[in-house]
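Here is the promised in-class demo. Please do not try to memorize the tokens; focus on the logic of going from shape to residues.
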């Protein structure tokens, strides 16, 4: 039987595994999430910029709703819904 003192090189046979796990943990902590928007996505964002005419229209509707003067025609709304869904098929 061979007995080595406390200073031999293989005192902890799992040391390599422990250091590898620690390295993996450090790598995980150093990584950060990234978000990249494609050129197509950027074009969509730019096209969604509010035009002044559209903003004026929205403001008029908001004012009418707040004053209680905004009226919705349920028949026209139903017709548009039916037309929309019948064209999808």
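The designed amino acids, position by position:
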């Amino acid at each position: 039987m061979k007995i080595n003192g406390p200073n031999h090189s293989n005192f902890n046979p799992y040391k390599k595994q422990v250091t590898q796990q620690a390295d993996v943990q450090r790598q995980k902590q150093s990584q950060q999430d990234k978000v990249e928007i494609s050129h197509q996505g950027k074009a969509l964002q730019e096209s969604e910029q509010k035009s002044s005419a559209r903003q004026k229209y929205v403001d008029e509707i908001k004012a009418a709703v707040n004053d209680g003067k905004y009226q919705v025609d349920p028949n026209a709304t139903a017709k548009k819904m039916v037309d929309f869904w019948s064209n999808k098929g």
